[in-house]
From TrEMBL:
Polar residues compositional bias, start-end: 1-25
Bias type Low complexity, positions: 64-76
Regions of compositional bias (Basic and acidic residues) in chain numbering: 38-50
Protein name: XAP5, circadian clock regulator-domain-containing protein
Organism: Stachybotrys elegans
Residues covered by the FAM50A/XAP5 C-terminal domain: 169-344
Domain of life: Eukaryota
Signal peptide extent: none
Region of interest: Disordered: 1-130
Gene Ontology CC terms, in alphabetical order: nucleus
Family annotation (InterPro entries): FAM50A/XAP5_C (IPR048337), XAP5 (IPR007005)
Biased composition (Basic residues): 81-90
Length: 356
């Protein structure tokens, strides 16, 4: 007795891929796909074992490529259709490529020498020096640093020597005593490095020698007056005691009217040479006495030709009593930060002066 259909023990000539394509439609998880794949492979192996047990000595032509001349199989079944070329089923899952990629061998292609060098160049190009830095720091040895420090020290000493030479230069300041009227005071010899209080102290001694004042004991009065009781007024600017004349010469300080407060040079004087032609300081006491006698006349010094009324020596007590009266009302303390050229001159009442 034979069935009209194919034997249930005959293996179905379907590939694993074809079976997977049929049994995995609609799956969305990779774990489900792997489970279904395992079941398909086990079923295929089980069918192959069953077919091996039931097969007789005559091989099943359905498992070979040799066609059956009678057009029927060994079980007497009807003619079997011609075997068609198997086509790989269409992939239905997006993760099918990933699964095949896991089974497929991984081939690592070695990079060419040129390509490796290009990649190395690209990696190196990521680290470039900072373009905003104009010059790279110069590496200096200890000897170079020591030499540079010595040069700076030499320049500093040279500047200090020039500065001391300027400060040691003598100047002449003609002045008057002022108490509402000008009383001639003569000329005082000072140095550019001296402070204003040094000038006031010398002017006080000049006043004692001349006996300036209306009182009979004027000489004693000027001898007992202190420097703190005196004021130095240059034009209309009250010069504080702690300022030296070198400050005004170096900074070329401008006062009201656009003129310099003290018009003295800040350049070092020319050094005088000895008979042998070598310049040097005087060392012995005899030479110092000779140098004192050889001092230049005060009238030949810088500033000797200034107007005496430009520099006033004023008793501070008199100023406190008359500072609301002209011209004391126009006097003002010196401010190094103030621009006197743009100043609008006013008196203590706020009235503007329309004259210089």
């Amino acid at each position: 007795m034979s069935d009209s259909g194919p034997s249930r023990f005959a293996p179905q000539n379907k590939t694993t891929q074809e079976r997977l394509s049929t049994n995995t439609v609609g799956l969305v998880a990779l774990s489900d796909y792997r489970k279904r794949r395992t079941e398909v492979i086990e079923q295929q192996e089980r069918e192959a074992r069953e077919a091996a047990f039931t097969t007789t000595s005559t091989p099943d032509r359905s498992l070979t490529d040799t066609p059956d001349p009678t057009g029927s199989d060994s079980t007497g079944a009807g003619p079997r259709p011609a075997k068609k070329k198997k086509k790989q089923g269409k992939k239905l899952l997006s993760f099918d490529d990933e699964e095949e990629g896991d089974d497929a061998p991984v081939v690592i292609k070695p990079k060419k020498t040129g390509e490796a060098q290009d990649n190395a160049g690209k990696n190196e190009s990521k680290f470039k020096p900072n373009a905003s830095v104009g010059l790279a720091p110069k590496v200096m040895t200890k000897a170079a640093l020591r030499k540079e420090a010595e040069e700076r020290e030499a320049l500093r000493r040279e500047f200090v020597a020039i500065q001391e030479a300027v400060k040691a230069t003598e100047i002449a300041i003609p002045f008057v005593f002022y108490d509402g009227a000008n009383t001639p005071g003569g000329i005082v010899r000072v140095k550019k490095g001296d402070f204003a209080w040094v000038f006031l102290d010398k002017s006080r001694k000049v006043g004692a020698e001349l006996g300036v004042g209306e009182k009979a004991n004027a000489q004693r009065t000027w001898a007992r007056v202190g420097v703190d009781d005196l004021m130095l007024v240059r034009g209309t600017i009250i010069i504080p005691h702690h300022y030296d004349f070198y400050f005004f010469a170096l900074n070329k300080s401008i006062g009201p009217g656009g003129t310099r407060i003290f018009d003295y040079s800040a350049e070092a004087p020319k050094r005088e040479t000895t008979a042998e032609g070598a310049a040097g300081p005087v060392t012995t006491s005899a030479s110092r006495a000779a140098a004192a006698k050889a001092l230049p006349d005060v009238r030949t010094l810088e500033g000797a030709d200034d107007d005496p009324t430009l520099t006033k020596v004023v008793d501070r007590r008199w100023y406190e009593r008359h500072k609301h009266i002209y011209p004391a009302s126009t006097w003002q303390d010196f401010d190094p930060e103030k621009d006197y050229t743009r100043e609008i001159r006013r008196d203590t009442g706020g009235n503007t002066f329309f004259y210089k």
